[in-house]
Amino acid sequence: MNQTDVSVENSEPILSVVICTYNPDEKLLKRALLAVAEQYIPSDSTIECVIVDNNSATPVAGLACVRAFLERCGWARVVIEPRQGLTNARIAGIASTRASVICFVDDDNELAKGYFASALRILAERECIAVLGPGKVVVEYLEPVSEWFAHTFSHHFQERDASRLAYGSAGATWMDFYPPGSGMIVRRNAVEQYRQAFLAGRLFVLDREGINLSSGGDTQIVWEATKMGLAAGISPELQLTHIVPASRSNLRYIKRLCFGTSSSYLPALVNSFPSEKEKWLPSIPSNRRIIVDAVTIIVRHILRLKFDILPIALASFLGSLVGLLRASGSSERGWIYRWVEFLELK
Questions:
Q1: What is the pTM of this model?
Q2: Of 106, 32, 43, 102, whose CA–CA distance to 69 is shortest?
Q3: How far is CA 51 from the centre of its chain?
């Protein structure tokens, strides 16, 4: 039965869908909403959906695609979160929903049909899994890109082609089978632990805020689940398309994305596992060591004629240094931040 025929009145939803968006591209958002509207659920079940408008310049509720979605899907509504940042938007979405399972859908995600039904079945069959994500992610570039660009950088847009269900719980580290934030399915008990830890100030790493491409929230949701003794994983039955507009399919965006990812990991790790800070946090390298490593990166890329990706390699390198400084709570090496500004990495 198509879920658009289902009324949520007086029914407890089996799934809550949270779509966080900030100044969305309406063409992408329309595809994301249509994919949600066309999902299938059991005929005796209901779902709910909240679109979290994260302080967009143009109110999301006024967009034509959103109005059409709300008219079609009586179980959907818009909530507004004025505090900027994906973490704040997700916290608002969690608080505004009530199902025992939540699915986070980005505004550039197009879920394949059967996504919700497959996820709910897998969670019902494996109670140990608290966080589940897509095992197959197809990257669709709205504007043509070179074969080299697609081959080199599609994994930065979460491209994945898993052949089997894989899950586990590995403590203070990150595993290849842990899911990305796109299409992430989370049990309520795990995501509530994440929300309460954030509200209590125990977790402070924020995700993307405006044009800032920092990350960490996806990672910390997974880690909160593993700290509860639960597992996280991916399944090839869960498939989605990650739609990439022209504004992101370029080297400048990749450079900033790599910096944001590299600078976020260690702060997120230390924040989630403070007792293991000494185990995972290396010492801050000397200025001489940093300069030697940077020169080595530059020379290696020049000798290999990889001029295009040299700025990206430097962005990842500087990101790892900034992440180390942040995780250490250090005010040293201030000149690194000046290079970050000079290279326009934030």
A1: 0.90
A2: 32
A3: 16
Q: How many Cβ atoms from other residues are within 10 Å of residue 127's Cβ?
A: 10
**Judging by DSSP bridges, how do beta strands 160-161 and 109-111 pair with one another?**
unpaired
Tell me 284's DSSP state. Answer: P
Q: Decide the pairing of beta strands 76-80 and 47-53.
A: parallel
Dist. CA 114–CA 303, nearest whole Å: 49
Contact 20, 106 (CB under 8 A): yes
**Looking at this protein, which amino acid is placed at residue 165?**
L
Q: Which of 107, 57, 56 is nearest to 79 (CA)?
A: 56
One-letter identity of residue 147: E
Domain ranges within the chain, ordered by starting residue: 3-249, 267-342
What distance in Å separates the CA atoms of residue 298 and residue 312, rounded to the nearest whole number? 11
Nearest CA among 74, 66, 62 for reference residue 34: 66
Contacts with 95 (C-beta within 8 Å, 6 or more apart), sequence order: 195
CATH code of the domain made up of 3-249:
3.90.550.10
Q: Which residue has the tokens 């299409």?
A: 183
Q: With contact defined as beta carbons under 8 Å apart, do 73 and 37 qualify?
A: yes
Question: Per-residue pLDDT tens for 142-172?
Answer: 999 999 999 999 999 999 999 999 999 998 8
